[in-house]
UniProtKB/TrEMBL annotation, chains A, B:
Keywords: DNA-binding, Transcription, Transcription regulation. The keyword Repeat does not apply. It comes from the Bacteria. InterPro entries: Homeodomain-like_sf (IPR009057), HTH_TetR (IPR001647), Tet_transcr_reg_TetR-rel_C_sf (IPR036271), TetR_C (IPR011075). Residues 9-69 form the HTH tetR-type domain. Pfam families: TetR_C_13 (PF16925), TetR_N (PF00440). Transmembrane segments: none annotated. GO terms for molecular function: DNA binding. This is Transcriptional regulator, TetR family. Gene3D superfamilies: Homeodomain-like, Tetracycline Repressor, domain 2. Residues 32-51 bind DNA.
Length: 187, 187
DNA sequence: ACATTTACATGATGGGCATCATATTTAGAA
DNA sequence: TTCTAAATATGATGCCCATCATGTAAATGT
């Protein structure tokens, strides 16, 4: 049954939303096209009316979710605290798409890599803007170093099956970033 | 044809070596059992004589490769430089198994998670030992923060399809770690 | 109101892959 | 040397999945 233009647009949005959650939760490979469609409330048949392939879905989902990822207000410390919280670690499906999906990007199509690259570029720029008190070189270094440590810590914490060590990775990374920022700022 | 005990042990080692390279290069899902066996010089049939399942292979490969990963001498700065080099970024198959495989561990069996956890625990301890001049709290924080930033930076750099930005992530993370270590040491 | 287009459903199709069954050959024990 | 058990090879089996073919009904334009 055909649906209205706006219905179709909304359906497409729902598919992308659902796909982004499933992909973050289970990884690209472990999620089937049929599973995405079912979770969005459809059967698998309509899929190729919206996307030309699963790879296309992956690329478009990345563009969709990375565009939506606003990454907090202007307070870097609050953002870091939230990012390195057990709550974020335990909420991959609803958490940062970079932390959940970057590592898999290496094995994806050029379109997917390109979407992720642009997402990372703007994320780094965004973090840089939250450090107006630093001179440009310090700002850039801090933004990139911070971001690498944040993403790395969440990925490590999610891999570790010992809760104490996992918590410690988050906590110590937070402390490490904190001293890094403070000391540069105080110079 | 049956082979000698030692032959079999060597064959098993070769399978694990080859599997570790393939997994690091292409990810667990993208590598088939038959592909591993073929790369090791066998057909797929003998596989279940060595391992009870593909999941078992994954767990044993992790234990194997993480035990072998010695991670350099006592000079942390040299290790960081090497780790954050374009050469290491471009050599996933022969590079650090953590950088190549941690993110996927989340979706693997408990045995695999456990092997990775022990690998990470000893890696963090090892890095800590390269910082004897620091007091224990600083040492722990530095080891974990450093390691998170190193792993995160390599994962990010491998995902980014713009060579300039990818190089910059490595370079700036190296600088960020360097200032972090220097400033703590100089206190 | 009617014709046409189209969004989604149902139901193939074909390929890849993990795993199993069986055969073969040879190491190791007796 | 002979017998047995084990290591690997060859060849199924069955499942899951991406993609395609076709049907159906409703929306849009005339």
């Amino acid at each position: 049954m055909k649906v209205s233009r706006e219905q179709m647009a909304e359906n497409r949005r729902r598919i992308l939303d659902v796909a982004s959650r499933l992909f973050r939760d289970k990884g690209f490979d472990a999620v089937s096209v049929a599973e995405v469609m079912k979770a969005a409330g459809f059967t698998h048949g309509g899929f190729y009316g919206h996307f030309s392939s699963k790879d296309d879905l992956i690329a478009q989902t990345l563009a969709h979710v990375l565009a939506a990822d606003s990454s907090g207000g202007g307070d870097l410390r609050a953002y870091v605290d939230d990012y390195l919280s057990p709550r974020h670690r335990d909420n991959a499906a609803g958490g940062c798409p970079t932390a959940g999906l970057v590592a898999d990007i290496r094995h994806q199509t050029p379109a997917a890599r390109s979407a992720m690259t642009e997402g990372l570029r703007s994320q780094i720029d965004h973090i840089g803007k939250t450090l107006p008190e630093l001179d440009p070189a310090d700002r850039r270094r801090t933004a990139i170093g911070c971001w690498a440590a944040m993403v790395g810590a969440v990925i490590l914490a999610r891999a570790i099956d010992d809760p104490a060590l996992s918590d410690e990775v988050l906590e110590q990374t937070r402390a490490w970033i904190d001293t890094g920022i403070s000391q540069v700022s105080a110079r």
